Hints:
Hypothetical protein af1432
Amino acid sequence: MSDWTTQxxxxxxxxxxxxxxxxxxxxxxxxxxxxxxxxxxxxxDRDRIVxxxxxxxxxxxxxxxxxxxxxHYRTRLTHTIxxxxxxxAFARALRLDEDLTEAIxxxxxxxxxxxxxxxxxxLDRRLQAFGxxxxxxxxxxxxxxxxxxxxxxxxxxxxxxxxxxxxKHNGPLTGPHxxxxxxxxxQIAAFDxxxxxxxxxxxxxxxxxAAISDDIAYxxxxxxxGLRAGLLSLEDLGQLDLAGDILREVRARHPGLDAVRTxxxxxxxxxxxxVEDVIATTLARLAEEAVGSVEDVRAATGTxxxxxxxxxxxxxQTRDFLFRRVYRNPMVFGTMERAERVVEELFDRxxxxxxxxxxxxxEAASGLPPExxxxxxxxxxxxxxxxxxxxxxxxxxxxxxxxR
Length: 404
């Protein structure tokens, strides 16, 4: 038995609820490793994620606005940190394993391309004949194959619980509770054959907490970035049931408060209301369904960590508003269309001339059949930061788009 269970060093699981995942009961790793003397398996996962190359690259990957449009807009890294903070709050309130929750939150965006969803759309088009591109599947590919830091295995060799949280944080991928019309990405299906992740069952409450924290973070902070970019005004927020009610509350309590502080007050209360709603809803659901173990969670007929129906409607309204006013704004949309062309042109050029790939990537591309070459180039491009993708495009082309 390992030191952290016998001595209580860094256990982090005293006082956990019976429906939480307990580190001592982890299903282990694809490649067995000796236990750490000072860390639980989930603390070890979190540390490996934070020290990975993929984590550092998030600093220069687009969330909504390309990073160099302004120093204060969210990047994938700042978004990830915000998601992690909210997720840990849920774990603490619901008595879940905080380290597992944090690990899943920190790794959830590893597979995102440069330029956010624009890059993902471009790669998905180019890889349609070879299984397409899915950022969630790419996250799994990164942590199981593409990160090469350790002598004994490729990837980060994360635990079953972290991997299932990464793959299934939005629900089962197969079976009666899977989303209709969504096939299992081939990369996930292939890994599942090596290391089964129970794709037909729900993931842990820790994974569900990370997933809903993502919704809370981007619904709030994309409003904030929209205000900062001048695409939205405080009066625009008055159209929304949630943000509008908070706006009126702030103005009644702090008459004459300047616009910047008013915006900050709205955003922090926006997060608080959603967090408190989720905690209350989840505790009620746990009691109603008599959830007494993590197996009860996995065998449930629906997501347990969730918004109330009223809050879910308000979140959907906010998301629709963001699509209309921010994501599809001509300024943002035009920039993303140009970014898609950058990614597509890089993909085509590297597939035509794999020798243009950097050392290591070029040698590995030699002699690959078209399907494997396309995936190899997709792996290379998906790992790029925004700035590096533009630099590579300038190296290979004479007319790189201005994304400002």
